[in-house]
Amino acid sequence: MSLSLPLEARVNSAQDLPNAEDLAREFGPLVYRTAYRLLGDAGLAEDVQQEIFLRVLERPPSGVEAWPAWLATAASRAAIDLLRKRNRWWQRLAQWRLQAPTATPSAEQATLDRERANRLRQALAGLPRREAQCFGLRYLEGMDIEAIAEALGLTANNVNVCLHRARRRLETRLQAHEEGVEA
Question: Which CATH class is domain 12-92+115-182?
């Protein structure tokens, strides 16, 4: 295999699978960015990135036509699973343990942004899996509807329905939080 060609040009058939090192070198940043956008934590994003490439190394998938789409989808699924796992764990802790160190007053805007991002992550974690995947791939990764449909094995119409439901549920949850804060 020639390393000067793009990975997609080097992989001609389902039997000619690239090795995990080539995939990690070429698409590692994509997997990291996907996980980071959902998790908002560099360490957790690195864990998801490592988990995805370990899966590929241990059990290489067959029939992958578009590695970037497959890897981005796998990363979003793993990140959403991690969010759900963390949310279940955090719900069992006493309220005083949830208290994080407060930010300095000079970082007010950064704190507000972090709170909004955390609320969005929590709302995403509460969505049904398919809706959360479609939302993350469309609005966080910027994938088009057809690419999402292909990556998730859905029709374009199903993706649009999932996106509509996800937006409505997120709006409802985020508005309820805002009204609860103002009240």
Answer: mainly alpha
* Residue 165 CB-half CA count within 13 A: 15
Tell me the pTM: 0.51
Report whether 136 contacts 38 (CB < 8 A): yes
Domain chopping of the chain, boundaries: 12-92+115-182
Contacts of 147 (CB under 8 A, 6+ apart): 66, 69, 137
Residue 82, token pair as written in the block:
């991690």
DSSP characters for 24-91?
Answer: HHHHHHHHHHHHHHHH--HHHHHHHHHHHHHHHHHS--SS-S-HHHHHHHHHHHHHHHHHHHHHHHHH
CA dihedral 42, 45, 49, 50 (to 10 degrees): 70
Cα separation of 86 and 76, whole Å?
15
The pLDDT tens digits for 61-120 are 888 888 999 999 999 999 998 888 876 654 554 444 445 555 444 467 778 878 888 888
